[in-house]
Amino acid sequence: MKEIVRVSLENEMDLILAHKRSMKLAELCGLSLSVQTTFATAVSEIARCAIESGAEAFMMLGIDFLKANRKQVTAIIYDTAPYTDRWQEAVSYAKRLADNVKVVRNGPRIEVSIHLEINFAGIISASKLESFTQYFAEEPPISPYDEIRRKNIQLQDLAQRLRESEASYRFLSDRLPLMIFSVNHLGTITFSNKWLQDFLGIPLTQLDIASWQQVLHTDDQHRMASDLNQLLIQKKPLRAQYRLRQKSTDKYLWHMISILPAENDRDMTTQWIGFIVDIHAQKQVEQTLKDNTELKDTQQKLVYHQQQLELKIEALNRSNYELEQFAHLASHDLQEPLRKLFFYADVLQQKYRDTIDASGVQVLNNMTQAAGRMKELIHDLLAYSELNQHEFEFGDVNLDTILEDLLKDFEIAIRDKGAIVRKQPLPMIRGNALKLRQLFSNLLSNALKYARTGVTPQIDITCLQTPDALAITVRDNGIGFDPKQQDRIFELFERLHSRARYPGTGIGLSICKRIAELHHGSISASAEAGQYASFLVTLPLSQQSYIHTA
């Protein structure tokens, strides 16, 4: 059902709202006044019963989609109350007004739905349904109670969001490896994370500007006071180094303190945000470098070795490129004799079938199977080498469309194995559609190939999106593998299972890894032998227009 509007059922004013909005939705769907009134009266009778006898009751109005493009207006009243005689009377009365009234009882929960079919349902398009939703969202309050109720809901929503935001900020700041604080215009520290309080050994309630004199090195106090005065006058960011006393060790450690002014919507500085980073080790290194000439010599040697390393890396890259070229050319050159091998094997099977004994037929079959494995290996080698030799264009890619197309491609295999595939909706990203299709095709193929005997294969494709990246998990309930092998599984030609039972070249997951890397992403695996295998593909949402691979 497409939900249009929801009404809480707590008192008589809510009953009026339920009646009016039921009438209005029926009117928007083009139903006559008498039908509107009958429908709304039936809804009101059930709503009244929910208000009288239940708790946490509410009503949901929407449009149901039926077969043959038919649609119906639906009102569902939810309540948590015993199904008493009063409920039976209300339902009985509603059934006299509406033909289609259903009751579902699930433990203490009651769901009463009232349905009214829409004539000429074809005119109720998706855009029309959105306009219905927008109408009720923007509908002016019908009474002072309705206005107060709406504002109360908005305030509750804002309060919940604020609590969640504050909790998230606290959770994040307490886990970042730096000290964070904020100071208002009165000099009161209004926030400090756990790192700062643990380091200084002073709770937030006792932290103030004067507290810094207790923890700041004597030689740094005058300089910090001068810096803070300039900060207040110029209202520009402060970035300076001071020594702070650590409570647990009673030692002074060097820290970088950054303080930034925060302005409100009227460009007035109302508070300052501060970050403190431990740079003591860095300062010790700097001091040691100043005093120790041997370290300077070591630094020069390090530069020399760095140059040598870069030369070796360049030589290694050149060698890798030449190996890739060799693999590509060798694969191409092997295809022609392989085609002839298939051709002559086919001639032997067709022309000399009656003159070859059973042993010869077996030899011929073995030869054909071996040639087939060689053909598959050459195909995968070519696919892998091409990933390192071309410039791929990136564009907008609809991952949902790619997965839907792949499920159609694997339709026969899925049906033959009786597999169950569950997929969450996937968003648009920047990437190369052909290569991303190849990546997920390999993962789906493996999930079907490595199914457990006698167990219905289940494949779950889930998605978690952040502002910058997308994490897609392909999980199956197949034979899995030893978790100790999770790093080896992406190596070229690496196989963890018998070739006789599970055919393949051992290149498929290497191709997946290379495609993920070309998209500045990654792929990882987790599994349990005999239980499941799960592959996590992480891709950035934005990319440049193309990428060089050679």
UniProtKB/TrEMBL annotation:
EC number: 2.7.13.3
Main enzyme class: transferase
Catalytic activity: ATP + protein L-histidine = ADP + protein N-phospho-L-histidine
Pfam families: HATPase_c, HisKA, PAS_3
Coiled coil: 145-175
Top-level taxon of the source organism: Bacteria
GO terms, molecular function: phosphorelay sensor kinase activity
Signal peptide: none
InterPro entries: HATPase_C_sf, HATPase_dom, His_kinase_dom, HisK_dim/P_dom, HisK_dim/P_sf, PAS, PAS-assoc_C, PAS-like_dom_sf
Keywords: Coiled coil, Kinase, Phosphoprotein, Transferase
PROSITE patterns from the UniProt entry: HIS_KIN, PAC, PAS
Domain PAS, residue spans: 165-235
Limits of the PAC domain: 238-291
Domain spans labelled Histidine kinase: 329-543
NCBIfam families per the UniProt record, alphabetical: sensory_box
Official protein name in the record: histidine kinase
Native organism: Dawidia cretensis
